[in-house]
Each structure stands twice: as structure tokens, then as C-alpha cells.
Amino acid sequence: MTDTIRAVRGMKDLLPPESRRWQQVEAVSREIFARYGYQEIRLPLLERTELFARSIGADTDIVAKEMYTFTDRHGDSLTLRPEATAQVVRAYLENGLHLGAGVKKFFTIGPMFRYERPQKGRYRQFHQINGEALGVDVPELDVEVILLLLDILKHLGLRDLELLINSLGCPVCQVDFKARLTIFLARREGWCDDCLRRRAANPLRVLDCKSQNCQALLMEAPLLRDCLDDDCRRHYDRVLELLSRFGVPYTEQPRLVRGLDYYTRTAFEVTAGGLGAQDAVAGGGRYNGLVKELGGPDLPGIGFAIGQDRLMEILPEQDSPAPPRIFLAALGPPARETAFSLLRELRRQGLAAEFDFQDRSLKAQLSLANRLGASFTVILGDRELAQGRVLVRRMDGGEQQTLPLDGLAAALAALIAREKDEHRV
RNA sequence: GUGGGCGUAGCUCAGUUGGUGAGAGCACCGGGUUGUGGCCCCGGAGGCCGCGGGUUCAAGUCCCGUCGCUCACCCCA
User: Fold this and answer.
1) What is the pLDDT of residues A99-145, one digit of tens each?
2) Is the interface score ipTM higher than 0.90?
3) CA-to-C1' distance for A384 and B73, Å?
4) Residue nearest to nucleotide B27 (CA to C1')
5) What is the CA radius of gyration of chain A?
6) Distance (Å, rounded) from C-alpha A180 to C-alpha A246?
7) Nearest nt to A285, CA vs C1'?
8) Chain B bases having any atom below 7 Å from a protein CB
9) For the ranges A24-33, A203-212, A277-286, A383-392, which has the lowest average pLDDT?
């Protein structure tokens, strides 16, 4: 168009009716979180840059090139959060939540920011639903987190999801593995340019290169799971055992590495069709070194993030019935006066009511009522006003009845209640 | 950052080898009912054809540039 101001690249307006579906997704999530004993925390969108630099890893793409970072008026370097886990840990420590014994379980929902080229399923402002459990490192908790995640997705009506899982081991295993992998990578020829770069910076990333050629070369690469020490091995085996026992289908993905440096042991991803190249709807894993890294005691943690924008893309259609609405159609100034008062009265009764703020013909008003999905329209003109009555029109059939203006709110409430009962049957 | 595709009405899109007046469907407004919605019929409003430059007698159509959107790479949710 002309030079009207547009939304910033990679950021979108969320409009009705879609906004309603987002609310529904969030409501379902909250309900399932509550069932599993996870409580909501709401966190700032802005943090000191150092928090992310230290937790996510200075060499990761997120930190190296994707953060929205700026200096505030005080000279502090601040960053719009690119992910939630680091923040959750920060809040956990800052508020002394780690001091009590046992597991602490949280969830948080909100926007994250990464400066990337937008594409399908990837935006500069995107939205995550996060679950985090801190303080205990037992395989049962890993399984709980995965079950929780799958439960949410299932309650949202998603099917045909695939759970990919791997163990990244602990830092000790990783040192061993990286050494072996580095040797392997150096001995082979034919890596793509990106992998040559990764080989130097972070060899683990070579593992999930999408180039067919590199994947072929990787067929004989050492596997993380062969480098796990006894504890990590036992932990991983137990996770898999429990998943099997609960009948949760999974696919072991020995080359699943994930792009944040803090992951240890269990790492997982949920993928779905229909998302294009960005097919991960959710991902997560254990982060046993993170709390300590951020200055706290050596406490473990595990969590996941659901990509809400991607989730919305694959959500099955399901139209929720519109709430019953009453529309007030008024003809002429005196009737409009009465109608406006009546509008307030109906709403005070808890009824959803609306009227035409433009003074238009009855025809136009009924047409509006129809568009809004009103179940009843109250018609109020001079004739009705003179008799102290109104016409009440059912919008689905068109039958009309006359009701006294006195006590109209209660009468309509009764009508609506009966309506609801009938729908339930 | 790199590459492909696309920018015509609020939305989805037509627009033939460049050739009188810029179109359709949906949505919107009005009429067909003196005070009665949906369906139907009639009418109306709404476009610097993304922007700038060039070629040409003539550009929505061809060329260059630019901005934007989109998909993909990188990487992740």
C-alpha cells in the first residue's frame, strides 16, 4: 500500500477468530499442567544479555547471530529472550525456590524473539509453551515430562506425532565422544562446507546435517550412546524402559543433538507432518549443569518447549459453538435510550448482549445480529415502548414472542438457560 | 547473510504475443418490505496494477533497480 506503517518483519498480528483458538490451546495446556502439578510463572521479556550468553552457549547460532540485543539508557546490555529455560533457572535461583527440598515444577507461556529470516513455522517473535522440572535427576521425572508434553498435544487433538529421543550423556561422556567424533570427522573427506565449519566450532552439530551426502558419511560415525558412562547408560535405559511400559511409541535418534549447549542426558523432539521444513512442534531435554553454570548449586533440571505457532498450524479444525448472544434492535431515539439501558442490565445479568451503535434501519440491525451469531434479537420501537413490551425474535427459526419490558433480563436469562440445556441433550 | 517464487480492490485471484476505457468471486453499503436477518435479484462504493527509473507511438504486461511478502538453506520451537 502507500507508506502506512507495517508490523516489523517476522512479527504478526493475531486476530479473531484465530486469537480465540490460541486461548483455547492455552486453556487446555494450563489444565494439563495443573494435573501434573506444574505451576505458572510469568517472566520478563527482557533479561541481561549475559544470562543467555552463559547458558545457551556462546558458539550457538542463537547467541552468535540471532539475539535481539541492545544497550539501555543506563549502559546495560539487555536481550529480548530467545528462549525460556535460562530465565526459569534465573528466577528459580533469584527467588530462592531451590532452597526447599524436592522437585519444583513450573510452566510458562509467552513470546520469544530470535533475529532470523522468517519462513514457514519460524518467526522473529514466536510463542512457546514451556514446562520445566528442577531439582531432581531421576529417569521417572524425564518420563513424566515427556508424558506431560504428549498429554498436552494429545488433548489438543494432535495425532500422528513422532517422538524422537536420544541421550547426550553428561559432560564426561561428551568429552569422550567429541574426541572420537573429531577424529572420525578428520579422517573422512567430502563434508559439505557447513560441516567443515561445524567440525571446527562444534563437532556435534555435524551429526544432524541435512545433506544426504554428509548423512551417508555419518553412517559409520561413532554414536553418543556408545560413549555413555554407566550412570548415563542406566538413566537412559530406564527412560526407554518406562516409555515402553507405558506404551509410548518413540524412535531412537542417535544423531539428535539439539542446538543449545546446556543439554545433558535425555534429549527429545516431537515432530509432525504438515509443517514444511520446520517440522519440530516441541523439543526439550535435561540440563543438569545449567543451574550451577548460572551461579547456583549443582542441581539438575529437565524441560520442554512447545512451539505454539507451529502447533496452531497443525491443529485440527474444531468449531466451538458461539456463546449465546442477545442483540438489541432499537428504532428511533426514545427506543435507543431504553435499549442502551437494557443493554447494561442484560450484561449485569451475565448475558452477552450487543446492539448497533450506528442508528440504522431494523433490517440493517437484524442483519448485524445475524452476522454476530445472536440467538435472540430484542426488537424495541415506539409501539413496544408505548405498551411497555418488546418483541423477542429467535434468530434460528424467526419465531417472535412479546415479553414485558419489566423483568426482561431475567426472562431472557431463562430462555438462554433453556436453550443451553437443549443443546446439551 | 544466500537462493527460488510472488507483489493488481479489505480478502482470494483473473488479466491472452505490450494495443480504446482496469476485471471476477467473497466481504461491505443501499434497494427489492411504511418496522424484520439468512437465500435470491438489482444497484453502489472501493485500485498512483508495491515504489523508482528505462525501452516504446503505446507498459498491469518487457528490462533494470529498490522495498515488501513467501518458501528454502543455516539453525531451532
Assistant:
1) 988 899 999 999 999 999 999 999 999 999 999 999 999 999 999 99
2) no
3) 69
4) A371
5) 28
6) 35
7) B77
8) 1-3, 10, 28-31, 33, 35-38, 48, 50, 68-77
9) A203-212
